[in-house]
Design brief:
34% of the residues lie in helices and 21% in strands. The chain contains 14 helices and 13 strands. The model has no long low-confidence stretch (mean pLDDT 97). Bound molecules: NADP nicotinamide-adenine-dinucleotide phosphate.
Length: 346
């Protein structure tokens, strides 16, 4: 059995990462790749030399009708927000299921799109239908979804660290959550930008978009927290890939390391790629780079009334393409981690 898929935005960073996973996937068959007009009809391995010898598909325009007629069952949109916003309804109209890696369908209300994304949303009905593609939370809904909104990379790292405590009601209601997150440069995509040039990024370290980063509303929506009680400060690391997030939280009562450990174990016992380092070890980016893993750890302070949580993942794998493959698997009744286990990455 094979399932024909398409990748739109193949010339970008998450497009490449997705191709690497799909070409080794035992069920997905990548039938079509697309990019913008500026890329034109290029062979994909001429864009990404890593794919030499493994893929000679030629980029075509992202025409939903043509792609549906090629028997493509599911399309991955690795495209900017506005492009996904325009393409997803058209693909759905031809019966093609969509996994969208952008933020175009992550927020529930169309009114949020003006302030946070800078465009008016024209498909509010799809915002209600789309499923937030975090497999650890929404596996059942993802299985029947026609449109999956793959979570943001920072958002994935933050939500996975908070989820067990939120579910167990261990955080003090209405307390401040402070989040200090750092990402490698590929998080900003492949389009050239002056502030992302080697000379600007190397031997440097800086915050950007403090408080107003668009992953903040997405995180608060998922964890059910007020935006004004969530302080999010992303930073740019002088490395190519990976995210390390540190969260500062207040508990509703004094907790022990063992209580927290038990809650994380309960939450993630069926998720071997969520690796619990507990109160002893600490995560680092090298340990998760090129994998679909998220490593989590925690520490207590103030005699157990406050905690510090740590989360590390690869922004292009668990934060983008790997999670998209998990969503594809769930949508097609396959084992959730098919093609993204540690053996697939080693
Ligand atoms: N990078 C990450 O770590 C990460 C993580 C999670 C989610 N995301 C999200 O995933 C999406 C892709 O991110 P990325 O980092 O891979 O971006 P990227 O490297 O900048 O690639 C963007 C891709 O979109 C294509 N594209 C742009 N306009 C298009 C159009 N009108 N029609 C068809 N294709 C078009 C580009 O093609 P051309 O080369 O032809 O312009 C390119 O292939 C974004 O929405 C991003 O927010 C990224």
């Amino acid at each position: 059995m094979s399932i024909r898929v398409g990748v739109v935005g193949v010339s970008g960073y998450s497009g490449l990462e997705l191709m690497k996973l799909l070409l080794r996937h035992p069920v997905a068959e990548c039938a079509v790749v697309a990019a913008s007009e500026s890329t034109g009809p290029k062979v994909v391995s001429d864009i990404h030399p890593q794919l030499r010898g493994s893929c000679d598909l030629v980029c075509q325009p992202p025409d939903p009708k043509v792609i549906a007629e090629m028997g493509v069952e599911t399309v991955f949109l690795c495209t900017p927000n506005e492009v996904s916003h325009e393409l997803a309804p058209r693909f759905l109209g031809y019966g093609t299921r969509v996994v969208d890696l952008s933020g175009a369908f992550r927020l529930r209300t169309e009114a949020s799109y003006g302030p946070w994304y800078g465009f008016e949303h024209s498909a509010p009905e799809l915002l209600r239908q789309s499923v937030y593609g975090l497999p650890e939370c929404h596996a059942r809904e993802i299985a029947t979804a026609r449109l999956v909104a793959n979570p943001g990379c920072y958002a994935t790292s933050v939500i996975l660290a908070l989820l067990p405590l939120i579910r167990a009601g261990m955080l003090e209601p209405g307390s401040d959550i402070c989040c200090d997150a750092k990402s490698g440069v590929t998080g900003a995509g492949r389009k050239p930008r002056l502030d992302l040039m080697f000379g600007e990024v190397s031997d440097n370290f800086r915050p950007y978009s403090p408080i107003v980063h668009r992953h903040a509303p997405e995180i608060c929506q998922e964890i059910g927290w007020e935006l004004e009680d969530f302080t999010f400060v992303p930073h740019l690391l002088p490395i190519s890939r990976g995210i390390l997030t540190t969260l500062y939280v207040r508990f509703s009562r004094p907790l022990t390391i063992d209580e927290i450990h038990a809650e994380f174990q309960r939450c993630y016992r069926d998720y071997p790629l969520i690796r619990l380092l507990g109160g002893g070890r600490l995560p680092d980016i090298q340990a998760v780079a090129q994998t679909n893993c998220c490593d989590l750890a925690w520490r207590l302070t103030a005699r157990g009334r406050r905690g510090v949580l740590f989360s590390a993942l690869d922004n292009l794998v668990k934060g983008a393409a790997g999670q998209a493959v998990q969503n594809f698997n769930l949508m097609h009744g396959l084992a959730r981690d098919l093609g993204v286990t540690l053996e697939n990455h080693c």
